[in-house]
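Slide 14.
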Amino acid sequence: MAPHVGENTGARIAHTRKVRRLTQRELADLSHVSYSMLTKVEQGVLPPSPSVIGALARALSVSVAELTGQPYIEELRTDQLDGLINPIREALNVYDLGIDPGVTPRSVDALEQQSERLCAMVRATNIKQVAADLPALIHEATTAAHMGPSDRNWRLLASTYRTVYDVTTKLGFHDLCSVALDRMDWAAQRASDPVLGGLRQYLRALAYLRASDYRTGKRLVHLGMATLAQAEPGRVRDAVTGQMHLGAAVLAGRDKDRDTAEDHLGEAQRIADRTGPAEKVYWLSFGPTNVGAHKVSVLAELDLYGEAMQSAQEIAIPGGWPPSRLAHHHAEVARAQMWTGRTEAAFKSLMKARKVAPQQTRYHPAVRETYAGLDAARRRLPETFGNYGSWLGM
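Slide 15: predicted structure.
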């Protein structure tokens, strides 16, 4: 069942439910979502939270992306982004073909420099340029790895595949993210790099978080930590371990397990106190600020929106914090503000997210759900509210 263009999530849920020949009461019972919540979501009166969308997707036996409408093809076409995806897909497909006689790769130093530059651009949310540059880098890095198979060359290729994951995730091509993670694992094993191997399991866990399979996500985090334990002790291993605890906290939060979520947040805080700001370690944005931002996310996942807002007020965001992470934080705060009735403040937070990272924000599902919730609230909002909706494609 393809997403219906122009529909909101509630309408897609209603359409899929009818295709499955389920009544609202039957779907509510199957998904363990309250009947009242389901009816309001289908009517567009209430925006569904990620956990509600996940529960309904599993009950309907469809992907979360099918209910949210990702990828947002019409908007991608408007931004000339849709045409950049197929070259990436084709570049991923030649991973095991050996040396390409039509490709003359640059030096490993030059390729590593470009790989790092693209990672930095992703954090700056210049997604379009990264997507345009990726295919050529993948082809060069693939040939370089086959020409001179060394840990360094395979590590470069694994890192490039990780950037593919970052880009395709932000644009909503979740099928392609899975391919990128498989390729990353393939290259990381050849690099004999436990950090990359553990990182891959962490990213995989996040994919299962988006799919609302929390049990598998938790198992993957556990496996990733076990893999990472084989790495040399030090700041790099600490930062990646700390980020895994943050991912595990969000998984537990969405699964409504507050005690486990707080345990992971506490461990991440202890590690962050030791590492300090470590945003550039594998470009994970780890550090004390990210722990605070994840606490807001966890509280929102637990539907404790008042506590989430209070926690957000306690965070001092340093200058130069990665725009990709800052925009996501603004989106989380907006959701909490919307659910506590602070509609004007919520819209201001959405505007901040757009200002900081327009390309990322436009394709962020939570931004769209929050905007839909504000629209349904029928409160007085600035004239720019309608313009924002047009920009989102809503």
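Speaker note: The chain has four domains: 1-69, 82-192, 194-321, 327-394.
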